[in-house]
Specification:
The protein has 205 residues and is an all-alpha fold. The longest helix is centred in the C-terminal third of the chain and has 72 residues. It starts with a helix and ends with a helix.
């Protein structure tokens, strides 16, 4: 199920032949451009409002407001696409962390078996298998060090996985908020469109 979800999440990247990082960076740059456009529309609206209230002026303001809202909706759409990319990237990182944990646990199990086997050998077996006791205890120390290093790595990967899962949840919440904002903007645009139509009808009279 997760594989199918990831496939559709990364379909835009596969189709365009871009990496996830490039996709996210591109969306960020596009959002920055649209943000400047939105600010520019607001300045034009403010300037037009200073010129006094006339029916023609009100229609002009409504036209600029519609263009501004359309730009805001586009910006929100890009932000949602960017959030999808970041969620997909985080899900992959969680998968990589899980794979690392599995491999480290397998290696830890092997190290534990070797350690248990070495500690159960009697002195005669130790002498027969090793050139001297120094070699045996050197190997035993190496196994113990490997064991401790693997345990530390597993703890670190677990913490990383938890952080990534928290990040994924935060991104999903942000995406839902962006979708709600986009819906609100679309409702607002319909209201402005209606007001513009009414004022256009008055101009025709």
């Amino acid at each position: 199920m997760k594989f199918i979800f990831l496939f559709f999440l990364f379909l835009p990247f596969l189709a365009n032949g871009v990496t996830t990082e490039e996709f996210i960076r591109s969306k960020t740059e596009q959002i920055e451009v649209l943000t400047k456009q939105i600010e520019s529309y607001q300045k034009e609206i403010d300037e037009r409002q200073k010129q006094g209230r006339t029916l023609t002026g009100e229609v002009d303001i409504l036209n600029k407001r519609i263009a501004q809202i359309q730009t805001e909706i586009r910006s929100l759409s890009l932000a949602i696409e960017k959030a999808n990319g970041e969620i997909g990237q985080t899900v992959l990182q969680i998968g990589e962390a899980e794979d690392k944990m599995i491999k480290h646990r397998q290696a830890l199990g092997s190290a534990l078996r070797l350690l248990d086997q070495a500690e159960q050998e009697n002195l005669i077996e130790i002498i027969l298998k090793n050139d001297n006791l120094s070699t045996f205890f050197g190997n035993l120390t190496q196994i113990k060090n490997t064991h401790e290093n693997l345990r530390a790595s597993i703890i670190g990967i677990k913490e990383l996985k938890t952080d990534l899962e928290d990040k994924e949840e935060t991104l999903r919440v942000q995406k839902r908020e962006l979708e709600n904002l986009k819906n609100i903007q679309q409702i607002g645009k319909r209201s402005v469109d209606q007001a513009k139509a009414e004022k256009n009808n008055l101009l025709k009279v």
